[in-house]
Amino acid sequence: MRQKSKPLKPVAAAIAGTASQAHQLASIPIALEAVALIDAPKCAAAGDMSVSWWHAAVADGTAPQPVIRRPRFTRWRLADVRAFWQAFGEQPDDAAAEAVKVAATKASEAAQAKRRAQSTKVGA
Question: In the chain, what is the straight-line distance between the N-terminal and C-terminal CA atoms, in Å?
């Protein structure tokens, strides 16, 4: 039986787990942010990605490496994860922009062909 998907949470709430923890997380002093540790599900949830995507990004070297790697206990620095997601969000998505351009061009050409067909029926 398939489970229902959970509603999306804001990034801070996804990292923290609850709204009160999100408030606490948002107000973590800079000095403590460097030592705060989070697990893979929270790292992935911060970017609204799956845990398997997160582990693949870590294996590829695009996401930060964990600072603690033990069986059933792998943790990343909160500051590293925040920096990663901020940089990831600022990257342009050229493939998506190209797909939108192709779809718009195709729709425009279809509309022009339809107008031409209608104008030839009216003129005939």
Answer: 60
Please tell me the predicted confidence (pLDDT) of residue 123: 63
Are 4 and 61 contained in the same domain?
Answer: yes
H-helix or E-strand containing 89? helix 78-90
Both tokens assigned to 53: 């995507």
* Number of domains the chain is built from: 2
User: What is the pTM assigned to this prediction?
Assistant: 0.54
Amino acid identity, position 72: R
Strands in 68-70's sheet, in edge-to-edge order, are 37-38, 73-77, 68-70
Work out the pLDDT band at 1, boundaries 50, 70, 90. Answer: very low
10 contacts 22 by C-beta, under 8 angstroms: yes
